[in-house]
Each structure stands twice: as C-alpha cells, then as structure tokens.
Design a protein that fits this description.
Blueprint lengths: L1 H4 L3 H14 L4 H17 L3 H17 L13 H14 L3 H13 L6 H14 L4 H14 L7 H13 L6 H11 L14
Helix pairs in contact: 2-3, 3-4, 3-5, 4-5, 5-6, 5-7, 6-7, 7-8, 7-9, 8-10
Length: 195
C-alpha cells in the first residue's frame, strides 16, 4: 500500500509478487493477487498480467475451504469485485467497472467503509457518461458517513471523482465540489488536523 500510494510501482510489483508466491493457497493468495498485484499491474497498463492476477485471485477465493462462511473476517468477494472495478477503471473500461462496483456495493452494508469504497468507484465509472448520477453518489457517501469517520481511501476516491467531474457542467457536480471544499481535513495518527 505504501509503495503503491507513493507511485513506486516497480517496488510495489516486486513486493506483491513475492508475497503472492509465498502466500498459502486460498484466501491469503486470493487477497494478494486481487489487492496487491491486480491494481499495481492495472496502474502500469499491463492488461494481460492484470487479467492473470484477477483470474488467480478468483480461483483462489473459490478454492478457499472457509469460503463465504458466516463470521469469516477478511477478504471476500465484495472486496475482490471492488479491486476488479478499479482495474477496469485504470484501463478505461467504464461499463465493466460500473458492473463490478455495483456488485460490490450491493453486497455491502450501507454506510460501511466497503460500501463507501464501492459507491465511489461506481461514481467514478459513471462520471464520463452520467456526471449528475456520479456526483449524487459522492454526495450520498458524504451524507451517510460523518467526516470524522471518512477513511483516507474514501477521501482519495472522492478527490479522484472530483477530478473526473472537473469539466462536467451539472448542478450536482457543483454541489459535490462545494461539499468537498468544506470537508474538514483528516486527523493524523496523533489526533491532530493539519494546519
């Protein structure tokens, strides 16, 4: 996560490949393929390799002996669909991104971090063709999740949505931008907001 967010894709890919190779079969390997390898490969534009990582993640998740057992904590099909949607976005496949993000959001509880992530990825997928709908989804996240509970990943997705909507004329786009401009800054690990 740290190297990818810093744009150090070569190092990220090395770490992700090493982790996936060492991971036990099932859930952990599925997570490393979908959460670490897939987005890194997609951000580098490596479609064939990203598709391979996704297929491996799907295979490993299906083979996991615990599978969808109630109470199982950790990576699941909704999160895999989220990462798949983000990979489709990286390749400019907005219809496929929308489909996978809808699937992810539909299996999440409204108001949770997973729901916010899937909803914001769905909004990004809608932004080119349906800017008003995309902006409304962003507003929905801001309406349902208090700023103090908004994760940094959600804030990053909101910023990305704002950039995608930057040249789209719609009232709801302006409303979203205004809400984002008045969003209080996040607190750091010590509980302080940046000055």
């Amino acid at each position: 996560m740290v190297t990818r967010s810093s744009g150090k894709f070569t190092a990220t890919l090395t770490y992700a490949e090493r982790g996936a190779a060492a991971a036990p079969r099932g859930l952990v390997r599925a997570q490393l393929n979908a959460w670490a390898l897939l987005p890194t490969l997609a951000l580098q534009g490596l479609d064939r390799e990203a598709t391979s990582a996704l297929e491996e993640g799907l295979t490993e998740l299906e083979a996991d002996p615990v599978g969808e057992a109630p109470g199982r904590f950790g990576f699941d099909a909704a999160e895999l669909a989220l990462h798949q949607a983000e990979a489709h976005l990286a390749f400019g496949r907005f219809d496929q991104a929308r489909s996978r993000a809808e699937s992810s959001a539909a299996t999440c509880t409204i108001g949770t971090p997973g729901w916010a992530a899937a909803t914001l990825v769905l909004a990004q997928a809608e932004a080119p063709a349906q800017p008003s709908d995309a902006a409304q989804r962003g507003m929905d996240v801001l309406d349902r999740i208090p700023p103090s509970r908004l994760r940094s990943t959600a804030r990053t997705r909101l910023k990305r949505l704002d950039r995608l909507l930057s040249d789209r004329p719609a009232d709801s786009v302006g409303d979203l931008r205004e809400r984002l401009n008045t969003l209080p800054p996040p607190v750091d690990a010590h509980g302080s907001a940046p000055v």
